[in-house]
């Protein structure tokens, strides 16, 4: 599983929001930026997209989209496949991790974070 580090301040933001949306939960749990969450959601709707196609859809610079995709791949939220072009060369196509798998990743990440916090709580008062 990808290494994740949920940030407590983001959890506070979720707790004060009456009904946080999927994008807010995604940014909190995986520590990604909103534009990275939007990239993930776009990939869900448009699997097999290239950087150029995503840049057009998201109205963002290709280099920024590339960085977002790198982050999503590091977090286990996207995959990349190389497609050979008829005229020679290749292009990379990106696909979002299926929503059910992303949900499972979120649950696992929160479980790991909660276990870490429980360990810290159990250690309180043990140091002389």
Automatic annotation (TrEMBL):
Alphabetical list of Gene3D superfamilies matching this protein? Winged helix-like DNA-binding domain superfamily/Winged helix DNA-binding domain
InterPro entries xref list? ArsR-like_HTH (IPR011991), Tscrpt_reg_TrmB_N (IPR002831), WH-like_DNA-bd_sf (IPR036388), WH_DNA-bd_sf (IPR036390)
| Superkingdom per UniProt | Archaea
- Name the SUPFAM superfamilies on file: Winged helix' DNA-binding domain
Which ranges carry the Transcription regulator TrmB N-terminal domain?
A: 27-96
Name of this protein = Helix-turn-helix domain-containing protein
Origin organism is Halorientalis brevis
